[in-house]
Amino acid sequence: MTAKDCGHHHDHRKTLYRNICAALIALVLLVLFTILLIFLILRPTKPKFILIDATVYAFKVSAPNFLSTTLQVTLSSRNPNDHVGIFYDRVDVYATYRGQQITLPTMLPPTYQGHKDVDVWSPFVYGNEVPVAPYVAAALGEDQVTGRVLVNVKVDGRVRWKVGTWVSGRYHLNVNCPAYIVFGGNRVNSGGGIAVESGVKFQLVQSCHVDV
């Protein structure tokens, strides 16, 4: 076999390999495009959260600027999609007041939510003598006069969408649920601060703002 023949076969193999690689790349791109097209057609809708109730076991301000909080909240989440499931991989629940976090995060168990399914969680969130900014303590003093305080129950986590056997990457879940705690007859003065008697349940049924 001449050197010219060897060069011809070598070029033929290179062309064959290029064609095989191009075909594989085209197949992968077609599969990804199909998945993306199905995903866009189904247009997954973010879950809907409702804060059903909040039971206050402790909400006390002590001098100079410390806040102790223990709440049990009941949250429901509904998957409104007909063809898209939702994986909740890591979800934390905590409470804030005037933009400041006042409890430690409580982690909910990972779960899968099927089409149109509803899940209900009742976690405890608490913070013991959490230092708060002076303006927060002043705002709490104003709330003592009005007789109610707005606490925001936050849900922070990661979710994935499931369409058939395909599962998406992780998306950031951010939920904000306003909860008004009314002091009323349960308000007591304690060392110049404010407190709520233990075990007071507030029925809220409050829709939450959800970002994904």
UniProtKB/TrEMBL annotation:
Compartments in which it is found: Membrane
Gene Ontology CC annotation, any one: plasmodesma
GO BP, one annotated term: defense response to other organism
Residues of the Late embryogenesis abundant protein LEA-2 subgroup domain: 74-177
Highest taxon listed in the record's lineage: Eukaryota
Pfam families the UniProt entry points to: LEA_2
Transmembrane segments: 20-42
Membrane topology, record value: Single-pass membrane protein
Swiss-Prot/TrEMBL keywords: Membrane, Transmembrane, Transmembrane helix
Listed name of the protein: Late embryogenesis abundant protein LEA-2 subgroup domain-containing protein
